[in-house]
Design brief:
This protein is mainly β and about 90 residues long. Helices cover about 10% and strands about 35% of the residues. The protein has two helices and five strands. Strand 4 and strand 5 form a beta hairpin. The longest helix has 7 residues. The model has no long low-confidence stretch (mean pLDDT about 85). GO terms for molecular function: metal ion binding; oxidoreductase activity, acting on the CH-OH group of donors, NAD or NADP as acceptor. InterPro entries: CAD-like, GroES-like_sf. Keywords: Metal-binding, Oxidoreductase, Zinc.
């Protein structure tokens, strides 16, 4: 009898162990609400930083309301940030 080697898939908590928080649009209403999610573990080639402040641009507003027809919800917009990493302040 031949036995198959089975691999167990990882749970979402194992696959994405880093807890995160953001403000998300959950539909086309444009209303943002608190949103907890998880991210993958930081790798050797990654940089970790703490976002102190974050802004949204006009393109983010189009995405929040799905005006271009490509948005997937929940959507956490914003990439313009004032961040802290290893004691250094960055504007990204």
């Amino acid at each position: 009898m031949l036995l198959e080697k089975r691999t167990m898939s990882k749970s979402p908590e194992e696959e994405h162990p880093q807890k995160a928080f953001g403000w998300a649009a959950r539909d086309t209403s444009g209303v943002m609400s608190p949103f907890k999610f998880s991210r993958r573990a930081t790798g050797n080639e990654d940089v970790t930083f703490k976002v102190l402040y974050c802004g949204v641009c006009h393109s983010d507003l189009h995405c929040i309301k799905n005006e271009w027809g490509i948005s997937m919800y929940p959507l956490v917009p914003g990439y313009l940030s004032l961040s802290l990493s290893h004691g250094c302040l960055f504007f990204i």
